[in-house]
Amino acid sequence: MTGMPGKLPREAQADPVIELRGLHAWYGESHVLHGVDLHVNRAEVVTLLGRNGAGRTSTLRAMMGLTGTRKGSIRIRGVETIGLPTRRIAHLGVGYCPEERGIFASLSAEENLLLPPVVSPDGRGMPLERIHALFPNLRGRAAAQGTRLSGGEQQMLAIARILRAGADLLLLDEISEGLAPVIVQALARTIRALRGQGMTIVMVEQNFRFAAPISDRFYVMEGGRVVDAFAAHQLQERTPSLSARLGV
Ligand SMILES: Nc1ncnc2c1ncn2[C@@H]1O[C@H](COP(=O)(O)OP(=O)(O)OP(=O)(O)O)[C@@H](O)[C@H]1O
Ligand SMILES: [Mg+2]
C-alpha cells in the first residue's frame, strides 16, 4: 500500500497520531494479533470492521496496553508505546471506551464523570460546558445514579468521561450496540462534532450503517490481521467484497 512518496495520497503523508507496525499480541499463550499495520491521522475517524473474533477489540486493547505480551510497534505521536504501562499510554492523551462501558452503578453520573484523573499532556480536561454541549442528554442527569441511566445515557457518559479526562485520541468499542436508532443518530452527530474539534477516533463497529457515513477510512480485519483498507469514497466499489467478508 505504501508506494513511492510522490504517489501517496494526501492523508497518507499526514503525521499519524497513532501508527501500528507489525503488531503481534497474546493473551497468555493465545496469539491473537498477527502483524497488524494501520495508522490514524489527526481528526480522522477510522473504523475497524470484521466478523466476530477478527481481533478488533484486541487491537484497541493492545493500543491501550491492555493485552498481555505485545510485539512490533505502536507509536503514539511518535512515542513508542510497546512496553509502556496503560497509565503512561493514557497520559499521551489516549482514552479507551470498552464495549462494557464500565459505568459504576453505585456512583452518580457526575461522580462517574469526574472519577478518572486528567491525563491530557497539557493537564487540562474538557470543561463540563463543552461536555454538555456535546451530550445534551446528560445535562440535568448529574445526580442520577449509574444504574438509573438508560443504555444511551450510559454510553454517552462513558465517552464523556474519557473526554473529561482530556483524551484526544479516542478508542471506541461498539458504541452503538443495543441502542435505539434515535440514540445511534445522536451518537453519529457527536462523533462528527468531535472530529470537527480535532479529535482522532478509532472505532470498532458491527453496525455498518452507523459507521459508514461518519468514517473517513476503514480497515477490515480477519484472523488477527488487516486484510483490506479503503477510504470512504471507495465504499461503493468495496460493497461486494465487504458483503462477502462481513455478511453485511
Ligand atoms: N481475554 C482473552 N483471552 C484469550 N483469548 C481472547 C481474549 N479476548 C479475546 N480472545 C480471542 O482473541 C481473538 C480476537 O478477539 P477480539 O475480541 O479481539 O475480536 P473482535 O474482532 O473484537 O470480535 P467480537 O467483539 O465480535 O468478538 C478471538 O479468537 C478471541 O477468542
Ligand atoms: Mg470486539
How would you describe this protein?
- By secondary structure, this protein is an alpha/beta fold.
- It has one domain: Rossmann fold (3-Layer(aba) Sandwich), CATH 3.40.50.300.
- It is 31% helix and 27% strand.
- The chain has 9 helices and 10 strands.
- The protein has helices at residues 10-13, 56-63, 86-90, 109-114, 128-134, 151-164, 181-196, 208-211, 235-246; strands at residues 16-27, 30-41, 45-50, 70-76, 79-80, 94-97, 169-173, 200-204, 217-222, 225-231.
- The strands form 2 sheets. Strands 6-7-8-3-9-10 form a 6-stranded mixed β-sheet, sandwiched between helices. A 4-stranded antiparallel β-sheet has the order 2-1-4-5.
- A hairpin with a 2-residue loop joins strand 4 and strand 5 (79-80).
- The relative contact order is 0.18.
- The structure holds adenosine-5'-triphosphate and magnesium ion.
- Magnesium ion is lined by residues 56-57, 204.
Secondary-structure blueprint:
Blueprint: H1 10-13, E1 16-27, E2 30-41, E3 45-50, H2 56-63, E4 70-76, E5 79-80, H3 86-90, E6 94-97, H4 109-114, H5 128-134, H6 151-164, E7 169-173, H7 181-196, E8 200-204, H8 208-211, E9 217-222, E10 225-231, H9 235-246
Parallel strand pairs: 3-8, 3-9, 6-7, 7-8
Antiparallel strand pairs: 1-2, 1-4, 4-5, 9-10
Bound molecules: adenosine-5'-triphosphate and magnesium ion.
